C-alpha cells in the first residue's frame, strides 16, 4: 500500500511540475488569450434614401440595397450614420446633384442631396474620418440608369457617373476591417463624361479614355450612327440620361465614296447578303438610303472565302462606290444591334470624338475577312 501511495504522490508532483512549466512558458492567462475580431465587432452602418415619388424609404444596414433599382425612379437624397462604437471619428459623404454638381461633405445622418426639387443624384463619395478610419474601410456601389450596378469602390472614391446625366437608382454600403477580405475594385466603379470634338466621351475610374464602352456597360437599347466622310470613321452614339444621343460609345474604321450623300437618314431594311455593284456581294448589309448601304468589304461571290483582299486593305480610305464599307465584324454589329429606323447622320468634319481605329492589312493570298466570326 505504501508503494502505491508513493507512486500516486510522485505522479501528482510530476503532473504539477509539467503544468507549471507550460504556464511559465506561456505566461499568465491574460497574455494567452487573444480576441479575434469578427463581424460582430464592426460598427453597423445605417443609410436611407429619398426616392422620386416615394419620399424617404426605411433605413437599411450593412450592404443591403436602398433605392429602387427595378423602377425608373431617381435617388434624390441620402442619410448615412454609424452605430455607437469605441473609436473617435465619423462617416462623411458628398453627392453630385443634377445642375448643382458636387456638394460639401456632411456627416453622421445629415441629409446630402435635395428634397422637393426633383433633382437626381448622379454620384457619391463616402469616407471615414478620425480614429475610426485607421481600423475600417467603407465600401459602396451604386445602380445607375441605363447601366445597372457599377463595381465596388471605397474610401472617398467616386461611385456613379459625372457628366452623363444618369440618375442613381440604388446604393449599397458596407464597412470592412482593414485586414478583412474586401470586394475587388475595378475601372467600372465610376464613369466620367466630358466633351471632345462636339460629343461626350467616357473616362473610366482609372481616368482612361473608353473607346469601346460596350466592354464597360454592355449593350444599350438603342443607338445612333455618325459617318464622317472626311475621316472614314463611323461613331456609334448612345443616349445620355436625358435621352440625347451625345455619348460616343464605340467607333469603326470604314470606307466611304465620293458619291456617299450627306444628311440625316433612318435605316429602312437589312440583308444578310446583298448584291452590290460590279457583280460583288456584301455581308450584313443595312440600307441607309436608296442604294447606299452599310456592308462588309465586297466578295466575289456569296461565299465568305471570296473576299476582295485589295479592297479590304483599303479600309480607312475613300474608295467605295457610295456605300459605307466596314470589316465583317463591324458590319455585323450594326446588323445585329441597330434596329430599323436607326438614325444615321453622314457628315464631313475634320475630327471625331474617338480616335480612328487602325486596320491590320492582310496578305494578297488571304481571301477571307479576319474579323468574320463564322470562319
UniProtKB/TrEMBL annotation:
<keyword id="KW-0573">Peptidoglycan synthesis</keyword>
<keyword id="KW-0808">Transferase</keyword>
<protein>
    <recommendedName>
        <fullName>L,D-TPase catalytic domain-containing protein</fullName>
    </recommendedName>
</protein>
<dbReference type="GO" id="GO:0018104">
    <property type="term" value="P:peptidoglycan-protein cross-linking"/>
</dbReference>
<dbReference type="GO" id="GO:0005576">
    <property type="term" value="C:extracellular region"/>
</dbReference>
<comment type="pathway">
    <text>Cell wall biogenesis; peptidoglycan biosynthesis.</text>
</comment>
<keyword id="KW-0961">Cell wall biogenesis/degradation</keyword>
<dbReference type="InterPro" id="IPR050979">
    <property type="entry name" value="LD-transpeptidase"/>
</dbReference>
<feature type="active site" description="Nucleophile">
    <location>
        <position position="323"/>
    </location>
</feature>
<dbReference type="InterPro" id="IPR006637">
    <property type="entry name" value="ChW"/>
</dbReference>
<dbReference type="Pfam" id="PF07538">
    <property type="entry name" value="ChW"/>
</dbReference>
<dbReference type="GO" id="GO:0008360">
    <property type="term" value="P:regulation of cell shape"/>
</dbReference>
<dbReference type="InterPro" id="IPR005490">
    <property type="entry name" value="LD_TPept_cat_dom"/>
</dbReference>
<dbReference type="GO" id="GO:0071555">
    <property type="term" value="P:cell wall organization"/>
</dbReference>
<keyword id="KW-0133">Cell shape</keyword>
<dbReference type="GO" id="GO:0071972">
    <property type="term" value="F:peptidoglycan L,D-transpeptidase activity"/>
</dbReference>
<feature type="active site" description="Proton donor/acceptor">
    <location>
        <position position="295"/>
    </location>
</feature>
<feature type="domain" description="L,D-TPase catalytic">
    <location>
        <begin position="223"/>
        <end position="347"/>
    </location>
</feature>
<dbReference type="InterPro" id="IPR038063">
    <property type="entry name" value="Transpep_catalytic_dom"/>
</dbReference>
<dbReference type="GO" id="GO:0016740">
    <property type="term" value="F:transferase activity"/>
</dbReference>
<dbReference type="Pfam" id="PF03734">
    <property type="entry name" value="YkuD"/>
</dbReference>
Amino acid at each position: 500500500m505504501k508503494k502505491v501511495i508513493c507512486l500516486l504522490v510522485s505522479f501528482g508532483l510530476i503532473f504539477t511540475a509539467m503544468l507549471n512549466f507550460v504556464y511559465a512558458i506561456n505566461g499568465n492567462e491574460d497574455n494567452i488569450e487573444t480576441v479575434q475580431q469578427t463581424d460582430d465587432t464592426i460598427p453597423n452602418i445605417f443609410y436611407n434614401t429619398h426616392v422620386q415619388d416615394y419620399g424617404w424609404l426605411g433605413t437599411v444596414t450593412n450592404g443591403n440595397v436602398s433605392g429602387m433599382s427595378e423602377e425608373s425612379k431617381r435617388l434624390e437624397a441620402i442619410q448615412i450614420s454609424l452605430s455607437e462604437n469605441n473609436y473617435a471619428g465619423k462617416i462623411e459623404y458628398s453627392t453630385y446633384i443634377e445642375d448643382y454638381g458636387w456638394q460639401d461633405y456632411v456627416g453622421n445622418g445629415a441629409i446630402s442631396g435635395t428634397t422637393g426639387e426633383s433633382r437626381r443624384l448622379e454620384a457619391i463619395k463616402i469616407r471615414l474620418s478620425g480614429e475610426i478610419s485607421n481600423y475600417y474601410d467603407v465600401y459602396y456601389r451604386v445602380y445607375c440608369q441605363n447601366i445597372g450596378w457599377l463595381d465596388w469602390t471605397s474610401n472617398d472614391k467616386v461611385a456613379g457617373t459625372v457628366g452623363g446625366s444618369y440618375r442613381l437608382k440604388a446604393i449599397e454600403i458596407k464597412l470592412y476591417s482593414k485586414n478583412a477580405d474586401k470586394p475587388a475594385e475595378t475601372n467600372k466603379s465610376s464613369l466620367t463624361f466630358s466633351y471632345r470634338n462636339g460629343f461626350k466621351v467616357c473616362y473610366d475610374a482609372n481616368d482612361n479614355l473608353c473607346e469601346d464602352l460596350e466592354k464597360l456597360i454592355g449593350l444599350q437599347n438603342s443607338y445612333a450612327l455618325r459617318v464622317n466622310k472626311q475621316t472614314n470613321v463611323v461613331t456609334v452614339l448612345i443616349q445620355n440620361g436625358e435621352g440625347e444621343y451625345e455619348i460616343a460609345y464605340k467607333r469603326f474604321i470604314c470606307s466611304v465614296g465620293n458619291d456617299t450623300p450627306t444628311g440625316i437618314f433612318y435605316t429602312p431594311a437589312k440583308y444578310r447578303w446583298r448584291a452590290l455593284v460590279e457583280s460583288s456581294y456584301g455581308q450584313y448589309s443595312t440600307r441607309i438610303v436608296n442604294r447606299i448601304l452599310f456592308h462588309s468589304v465586297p466578295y466575289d461571290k456569296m461565299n465568305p472565302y471570296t473576299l476582295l483582299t485589295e479592297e479590304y486593305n483599303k479600309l480607312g480610305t475613300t474608295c467605295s462606290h457610295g456605300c459605307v464599307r466596314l470589316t465583317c465584324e463591324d458590319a455585323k454589329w450594326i446588323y445585329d444591334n441597330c434596329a430599323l429606323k436607326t438614325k444615321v447622320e453622314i457628315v464631313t468634319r475634320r475630327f471625331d470624338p474617338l480616335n480612328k481605329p487602325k486596320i491590320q492589312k492582310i496578305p494578297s493570298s488571304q481571301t477571307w475577312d479576319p474579323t468574320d466570326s463564322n470562319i
